[in-house]
């Protein structure tokens, strides 16, 4: 009877560990997908000829 109880307890702990591991992996996947989305949004916002702030090009006294 003690052996059965120990076995049940062991598998319960293994199940808990696997569920916790699954939760951690899901959080990592969510963070990775969120970073990919942010990277895509940032690359869409960024134009190829974007000037740094305060460094606008001037022609004939007109800031472009």
Q: What would you say about this model in short?
A:
This protein has one helix spanning 2-45, and strands spanning 58-59, 62-63. With 64 residues, the chain is mainly α. Strand 1 and strand 2 form a beta hairpin.
Description:
This protein has about 60 residues and is mainly alpha-helical. The protein has a domain at about 1-45. About 70% of the residues lie in helices and about 5% in strands. It has one helix at about 1-45; strands spanning about 60, 60-64. Strands 1-2 form a two-stranded antiparallel ribbon. A hairpin with a 2-residue loop joins strand 1 (about 60) and strand 2. The termini are far apart. The mean pLDDT is about 80.
Topology record:
Layout: H1 2-45, E1 58-59, E2 62-63
Antiparallel strand pairs: 1-2
Helix content: 55-70%
In N-to-C order, the SSE pattern is HEE
Strand content: 5-15%
For the termini, the CA-CA separation is: 84 Å
What gyration radius follows from the Cα positions, in whole Å? 28 Å
Overall morphology = rod-shaped
The number of helical runs is: 1
Q: What is the residue-mean pLDDT, rounded to a whole number?
A: 82
């Amino acid at each position: 009877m003690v052996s059965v109880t120990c076995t049940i307890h062991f598998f319960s702990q293994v199940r808990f560990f696997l569920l916790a591991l699954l939760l951690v992996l899901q959080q990592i996947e969510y963070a990775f997908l969120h970073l990919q989305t942010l990277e895509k949004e940032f690359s869409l916002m960024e134009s190829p000829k974007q000037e740094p702030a305060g460094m606008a090009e001037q022609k004939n006294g007109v800031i472009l």
